[in-house]
Amino acid sequence: MTKLELSIAWRYLRSRRGSRLLSLISVIAMGGVLVGVSALIVIIGVMNGLQRDLREKILIGSPDARVLTYGEGLKVEGWQTALAQVRQVPGVVAAAPFVLTQAGVTAGPDYAVAAYIYGIEPQGPGVPDVTSIREHVVKGAGDFRFASSDGRHRGVVLGKLLAQRLNVVPGQTVRLVSFAGARNINAAIGFVPRFEELEVTGLFETGMYEYDNGYIYMSLDLAKEFAGLGDAVTGLEVKTVDRWRATEIAQQIDRTLGWPFRTEDWQAQNQSLFQALKLEKLGMGVILLLIVIVAAFNIVSTLTMVVTDKTREIGILKAMGMPARSIRRIFFAQGVVIGAVGTGLGVLLGFGAAMALERYKLIRLAPEVYFIDHLPVSTQPLDVLWIILASLAIAAIATLYPARQAARLYPIDAIRHD
To answer: Are 307 and 314 in contact (CB under 8 A)?
Structure first.
């Protein structure tokens, strides 16, 4: 594009006496692009923030990967050998056995609920922290040693919401009923469930409803006994050097252990949830992109009016020898400038609004309902890049029709235009 073409495009964009309406319409078109781009940046940032916040809460109690097994019993026997092999896999930071089962829990004669029983090694020297659940005790002993008042590891740590439903506090006892470890007495009596009366030694709060409302942690040995697993465990939980490499590292663990072991990374365990969030993000992006498309119609109307207003000047330029492709480039440059200015200002406004929302927590939420106290925002460079490219592309496409119409004007008819 030559300097002359840019000069003429800039001249047509500026207001002058008798055509100030065209300048106002150009500003309105820029404003439409600005609103669309800034709204896209803020809303996509909010979706990213919610996804990040949910992911962080899930990974409080869920490891980067789990090593499980096939088979009727779905339990890992001889897990010590498998644990040693897993710890040698490149990218594995820590690994530990766990037990996961279900049980009925009650604190009195009239009310009982179902809960997940999660058995992990008691906190102490040399015990790896595969997840950050031990950091979220809010009341009680303050750790996961499960030390009960009788001097044994027969304490349990409950989710805060579960404790509220059962109306228990640290120091009181709860009664657990397990059918996984039921014993077959004889043909007449049948299976007898296992009962355990355990002391509540602490409460934890993660902000994740599923954990806080339905999980009970106890020592690994007690959980194995309670679930009737003997010396076996449910599986191994693994912490990786980078959670985004968890799928790759899980596949390497699969190859190392072989049959009958299998691994599940955190994305596979929560696949439906994260797919729903991605679909929601895509839907919001497409809907808000329509604002930019509406702004593109403003660009079309603006340039069409410029062509009508400048018909005589265009005829003179063509009569002086300016080729049709130069005329097209003049109007293309106008549309691109409108789109670029609107996009640039929209990026600045969107970034500013996103930073203000995150830093000053402008939109407050009820934590007892949403488990977050403000609307989280996380602006990703890749998302901003595709928003900018989409906006500029739409603005460029919007110039094609009016630029083509201007280039097709005949010099004599254009000069005679009233």
So the answer is: yes
Cβ atoms of 300 and 41 closer than 8 Å: no
**Locus of tokens 């969107």:** 350
Query: What tokens were used for 302?
Result: 């603006």
State the Rg of the chain over Cα: 33
Q: Is 14 a residue whose pLDDT tops 80?
A: no
As beta bridge partners, residue 103 has 115
Closest CA to 340 of 286, 399, 411: 399
Residue with tokens 């596979």: 268
Q: Which tokens belong to 192?
A: 């007898």
Q: Residue written as tokens 């090593």?
A: 67
CA atoms within 13 A on the CB side of 286: 5
Judged by average pLDDT, the poorest of 23-37, 220-234, 364-378 is 364-378
Please spell the DSSP secondary structure of 246-306, one letter per residue.
HHHHHHHHHHHH-TTEEEEEHHHHTHHHHHHHHHHHHHHHHHHHHHHHHHHHHHHHHHHHH
Q: Which amino acid is at 52?
A: R
Task: Assign 221 to helix, strand or coil.
Answer: helix
DSSP per-residue string spanning 139-168? EESSSS----TTSSS-EEEEEHHHHHHHT-
Within 10 angstroms of residue 388's Cβ, the number of other Cβ atoms is: 18
3-state secondary structure (DSSP) of residue 105: strand
| Element spanning 400, H or E | helix 400-407
- Give mean pLDDT, residues 304-330: 82
Q: Which residues contact 113 (CB under 8 A, 6 or more apart)?
A: 104, 105, 106, 162, 165, 166, 214
CA angle, 375 then 380 then 385, to 5°: 130
What SS3 state is found at 119?
strand
Give the number of residues written for the chain: 418
pLDDT tops 90 at residue 216: yes
